[in-house]
Amino acid sequence: xxxxxxxxxxxxxLTPQQLNDLLTESLAKLGPRNKVLAVPPxxxxxxxxxxxxxxxxxxYYGDRLKAILPALGTHTAMxxxxxxxxxxxxxxxxxxxxxxxxxxxxxxxxxAEYIHEQSEGKLNYAWxxxxxxxxxxxxxxxxxxxxxxxxHEVIGMANYTKNILVxxxxxxxxxxxxxxxxxxxxxxxxxxxxxxxxxxxxxAADRFLHHLPIVYVHTVVGRGAxxxxxxxxxxxxxDVECFTLASELSLAVNFEMLDEPIxxxxxxxxxxxxxxxxxxxxxxxRTRMALADGAELIILAPGVK
Length: 305
What we know:
Blueprint: E1 3-8, H1 16-29, E2 36-39, H2 50-61, E3 65-68, H3 80-87, E4 104-110, H4 112-118, E5 127-132, H5 133-137, E6 142-148, E7 151-152, E8 156-157, H6 161-165, H7 171-184, H8 196-208, E9 214-223, E10 229-237, H9 240-254, E11 262-268, H10 277-280, H11 282-285, E12 291-300
Parallel strand pairs: 2-3, 2-6, 6-9, 11-12
Antiparallel strand pairs: 1-10, 4-5, 7-8, 9-10
């Protein structure tokens, strides 16, 4: 198990050139790879800088990068204009669509007894470890899982094994993991790297993904000067350490603690990112712990259908 890059702090502001250099230095440490798959998020995580990092990986590997599989979960497939906006000049014929209904292989199950324990006795079902068949059957000698570690309402901190087992997972695995988070309580999960949902998914990864050559590329992105976004960290590795380090930084960068509850919140959902009520619900998840009883939440969602 290796950590190839761990650069970041509250004041770090990585430039595009630094991101490129750090990524290519890390990829060089892996040695020659001839059949590479990239698994970035879709446009709903555009601020992750995953589009940029995927482009750098394509420039580094050239025709050895054989495919790109956006981790859609149950999101709608990316349109050509969204792909070009996020990934630039990366050839569109490299992109594959994750069909969470039909393109799934179940690698095994986390037993119901473990779910029962993690849910504090509230649930009693097994959890299927499901991935897109291109991951399990594609014969790749490197799978780059690229994305942002950021507070998340269902799994505490986004990314790491979630990007594979939920982002390229099937209906049953996605729904059961989200329901576990809802039953346990999202308020008890948000911003915590270790929680029942993460424990289940990491357990599944340890059991069923250990034979796959997955390397995780994690950014931490925060607010910079003049309301811009700044890359505060880049963490690359093939085990939990890169996720743990990124989570610690994200907790410091991405959480705002208030002295008292607020009585009114206005949330604007950028139409380039938020197209469905499934995503639009984040306006509720991410504010409700800050709202006073009886407070008002106003959501402006021009792109949601």
